[in-house]
TrEMBL record:
<dbReference type="GO" id="GO:0016757">
    <property type="term" value="F:glycosyltransferase activity"/>
</dbReference>
<dbReference type="InterPro" id="IPR000836">
    <property type="entry name" value="PRTase_dom"/>
</dbReference>
<dbReference type="InterPro" id="IPR029057">
    <property type="entry name" value="PRTase-like"/>
</dbReference>
<dbReference type="Pfam" id="PF00156">
    <property type="entry name" value="Pribosyltran"/>
</dbReference>
<keyword id="KW-0808">Transferase</keyword>
<protein>
    <submittedName>
        <fullName>Phosphoribosyltransferase</fullName>
    </submittedName>
</protein>
<feature type="domain" description="Phosphoribosyltransferase">
    <location>
        <begin position="8"/>
        <end position="184"/>
    </location>
</feature>
<keyword id="KW-0328">Glycosyltransferase</keyword>
Amino acid sequence: MIFEDRVDAARRLAPKLAALKLANPLWLAIPRGALPLAVELAARLGGEVDVVLVRKLAAPGNPEFAVGALAEDGQCIVLPWARQAGADETWISAERTREAAKIRARRALLTPGRAACSAAGRDVVVIDDGMATGATMQLALMCVRAQTPARLICAAPVASPDALARVRALADSVVCLSAPADFSAVGHHYRDFAQVGDEDAASLLRRARGEHT
């Protein structure tokens, strides 16, 4: 399955998510790539948009390959293949420090002067533009679950079968349009997979929340 761009992916996800009959949903995007999807889905299905800040811990020499993930609250997961990929404890510790600084900077940029939206008692959809290892989504779901949402939904247009299996136990529902056995990279499933810049992400979030850009 090939999507034109992230907005097209959101439009194709919308009917599946609408079938869940979400009540005033909170759309939590994993920045930055998921924000165009969250904004489009909120426009179509209603609800509020915010971000859940988690960062991939990358393998040495391979910034696209996740060996773990770090959340804004300090929670961290390390994946089973981390050491095999060259990420020993020293590397993981340094990577956590680097990514924690990026999380703080991203929070200051995306939601200056405003606390994160509470997920307590709400129907919450955590969304990404795709899941390769599933590490960031896995940790995002764990963090949101701790806030006791009414329902917790994981949504992504495309995922590897392994990533999909990894997140199923962490959400009440998982909505994914494609999980090909030959999955190689999220970007291969989009014709336009241009990077969403920090300023673009901030503008999208402000617009979705009715704030001045």
